[in-house]
Amino acid sequence: MITNTGKEIIGKYLVGQTDSYASYLAIGCGEKPLLSSDSFGNYATKTSLAFETLRVPIISKSLITDSGSTRVVLTAELPTEERYEITEVGVYPSQNNPIPTGLDSQALILFDGAELWEAHTATIDPVPLELGTIADEQNDITISDKIFYTNSNNSLFEKTNYPDRVERYERPRFLDRTIFVRGDSSVLAVSGSNLSVTSGDHIHLATGPVDLAKNSTEDELRLAFSVINKNGTEIGDTADVPSNVKILIQFASTDGASPEYASFVVNLTNGAYLNTLGTQTPTGTTNISFTTGTSHNISVGNQVTISDVAPSAYNGTWTAQSGTTGSTLVLNIGNNPGAITVAGKVRNENKYDFTNNRYVVVNKALKNLYTTGSFSWDTVSTIKVYACVNDGSTGTGNFYVALDALKLENISSFNNVYGLTAYTVMKTSDSLPIVKSDNTSSFIEFSYLVDVL
């Protein structure tokens, strides 16, 4: 689908105000793929991929007539060396935004061997690498280490004999390696908008400054991870669904006592998390009242994200206000943009459907990170990551968190000839990602229909 931004870019291209509307294809791993029989969503208000993996130059553009329809087909070649799992594709006019404020969109942490992560347990050691078989004949994980590296395509996720993990979307998607952290490695407690570390182990990276000081506070950090069952049990076995997942990424000025730091906090409780906002006329002037498609399970004070809605002023993250109950949702968004003309989605930031989808992307605007009073990005020398998976109220070793990547998404540097021109979620017969294996050559095509109105 061509986005609203894309319509403007194509218009400027047609009158010679920009050199290109489509020079790069971007592939991403953040959306849940659709079944072939599913309907595509409305992506008109999309401004970025959910979790972009890389961008590759378009090497050919062609016009094809097929079954009476004329399509523009854009083709690109994926790099040979790396492995990717693709669930979304976008079109951009260039590789980078040439006028960003602060850092442009990029992967900040890859959780791979080149980054020299340490496991801080009873001792301090490099995170061990497990490349062989890490599960028994029942596909139960048998590694004794609480923290370890493994390949994203480890035989643990072999689909033919062990389809359950793949069909729960447990398999990591970003590049070749991932770090597993067992769910009982840490004990994390909610402390206001922060998580406090009661006890436990973590992974640790000595790093130079992560200088986001010049970025807008509206820019986002996006963490991609998956939740892995220790036991290879059948899909839908409620005894093997986590009740809560907590992750704390701490950007600290020192590894010593009393550092200044910023915290990226994940605190997700299992439960239905997606709902719909149909076309309607919300009421109110500051606190706006909506009706969701079904009961939303959102409580007063929860953070709520609206996406894919027109007018676009509704899209963003807001706080649920008094009067929120059942299918009535009240949000303080400052003003009423008018009737909703394009339906969209509502997501409770504190809920996630771990029963059916174990691959997660969590977005946090820089303004929503917890920071100590004198924290400054240019003083960061240490990154620490803690993970805790609960079964009820207790941390459990029956799950692992597989850390995939942490990305910065610059969404604030406006450029009227740059942006997401078109976007789609992948469709497959089994609703699974398209796997591009390492050391293979692959091409990818993006096409859209051409018509005259």
Summed up, the helix count is 2
Give the uncertain stretches in residue-range form: none
Terminal CA distance reads: 16 Å
* Helix-strand category: mainly beta
Portion of residues in beta strands equals 35-45%
How would the global form be characterised? globular
Biggest sheet character? 9 strands, mixed
DSSP summary, beta strand count: 33
Whole-number count of domains:
3
How much helix, percentage-wise, in residues?
A: under 10%
Oligomer: single chain
Average predicted confidence as pLDDT: 90
Alpha carbon gyration radius: 22 Å
Walk me through the topology:
Layout: H1 4-14, E1 24-28, E2 34-35, E3 52-66, E4 69-78, E5 84-86, E6 88-92, E7 106-109, E8 118-120, E9 124-126, E10 147-151, H2 163-167, E11 177-182, E12 186-191, E13 194-200, E14 202-206, E15 220-229, E16 244-252, E17 261-270, E18 274-277, E19 287-291, E20 303-307, E21 316-319, E22 328-332, E23 344-348, E24 351-352, E25 359-365, E26 370-371, E27 382-391, E28 394-395, E29 399-409, E30 422-425, E31 427-428, E32 434-436, E33 442-450
